[in-house]
Write the structure tokens for this entry.
Amino acid sequence: MSEEEEEAEGGGRGGGGDRPREVKAALPLSRKLCYAIGGAPYQLTGNALGFFFQIFLLDVVQLEPFHASLILFLGRAWDAVADPVVGALVSRSPWRRWGKLTPWTISAMPFGVFFYIMLWFIPSNSFSASLRFFWHLTMYCFFQTSMSCYHVPYSSLTMFLGGSQADRDSATSYRMAVEVLSTLVGSSIQGQIVGGHHAIMRKGCSVDNGTLGSNTTLLLENLENTRRAYLVASFVLSSMYCFSCFVLVLGVKEHPDPSSSLEKTRLSFFGNLRMLLGHRPYNRLLCGFLLASLAIQLIQGIFALFCTHASGLAARFQHLVLIMLVVTCLSVRFWQCFLEKFGKKTAVFVGLSPIIPSLVVISAGSYSFLLYVFLVAMAGSSLAVLYLLPWSMLPDAVDDFKLRNPACLDPEPLFYSFYVFINKFAGGLSLGISTMSLHFAGYRAADCIPSPGVVLTLRILMGPVPIALLLLAMAVFSSYPINEERRKEMKREKEQASTWNEHTESKAI
């Protein structure tokens, strides 16, 4: 008998307070798929920002690199406050007819859609550089707050789907597959709509004098067309955002954890925070995830600029992005099978390894397009590991914490809020680092031929820096204490806790 069948047959009742108590059963495929589709908005918008927001601010809005880096860094610094605060508010929310988490996701959706569109909108050509800076900074902060209100409760929903450890791992693999697919779809849509316009803008350069050509009317027309293309892409992705949110709300019902203690206390925010950050499995995951995410998002943030200015592939970088994400999407299922057979820690080390030699070769010089295809395919395989493994390991850390602190009330939103924050903070930090580095290297949007210092900076940011971060991440993951034996032990402890709670409830009745 499979693990799901055993738990469906022997599952008990549980929960705390006045929450409804559900019979524990294996998760149906439809619920896993609806849950997975709900993760699409975060990746649709996040990867469009990751791949294109930096080049949008520099070459389309035409901000100075220093101002662009401030937008990217301050936006994520705002997120540093928003994610934990949202996590604390969600954890204190009462259970309602639609559950504890779902009302947050549906309420945040219209705000997220509006601010995402406004993020790519330039109100007027007469705006000064300062006004453009404040406009995009404000929209970026509002969008990040809206996305926190959507994604923190959504990611916490993993712990409230019902079912067993294997069900959660399976649902997480479906979620990661859909998120990678949505990354592929979102980046493809964004790349196909705006990529050609960037190539046309580069052709408008006068190579003889190394600056923009003298046909100002044509240049302004190309710039306006590029701005319009970004706005069209934002409307397309926003419509997919709405669809995914409605599928999640209509297809998933929250289920309390039957192993939770019936006698719970609510600690203060800082009390919970001290317990969370003092929990060894969780702080190891946070550190490893931060380093690996910082490396990958640093590559993601400068890839378009690297292809445009260092490798001579300005008109084809969107095709390389597409190939990378196709391989990532196809690799998720392979790594899910791998971790089921060899364990999650082993999958981390084996999976992150292929990207290192790829980065060494990519950053060393310019090559043919076919060689770049092979290298980005290798990188795409490692990218699938970063999508899958940290989110698959987090529920185990939450289970370990709850078993060691059975009286702690609803810690899941705080766990997931800091995890979401780490991912966003890594993205903002990577973009801030790369943009500030380009600022000090003397990057200017008006330069048709980048200076040797700019090219060298791009190569360093594409190779040595992310490689060092990945090696540090692998070293941190090696100290992660939850292995397969501990997972089996936690499964037995959860079953015992569920049985005890059911017995206690029966006696009370």
In short: The first strand starts at residue 205 and ends at 206. Strands lie at 205-206, 211-212. The longest helix spans residues 165-203. The radius of gyration is 24 Å.
